[in-house]
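Structure ticket #2291
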Amino acid sequence: MNYNSLRDVLTQVVDFDALRAHRCPVKLYLSATNVRTGKVKVFGNDGITADAVLASGYLPFLFQAVEIDGESYWDGGYMGNPAMFPLIYNCTSHDVVIVHINPLERPEMPHTAAEVLNRINEISFNSSLMREMRAINFVLT
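Resolution: structure written out below.
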């Protein structure tokens, strides 16, 4: 039925108009993966909606893709999460803090189908971040 109560909660507790306002001091970037093209879509403040938030975290085996402007999106981790380029080119901060939630290594081997799928997601989600971090390191050194 594609109903998710998280959308209702988001619209009740987040002031999306304030986030999209030109005067908003917070710069927010969310990544989602375009299902059709496989490319990363970065939603900046002007494109932040409840659907963009949902799309940035929807895993295809748990939720249906989120449609935005005629395109369908899944979690941004498949292609670029977090997208670093907006932080480098659009912000003046000297520091970036990344909260890394997917382990690079696991001491145990996955055995069940669910464990294997989870590990595949961890590896694929880490690959885009590691690729961007290597590129940044290459440019800075």
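Closing remark: The chain has a mean pLDDT of 88.
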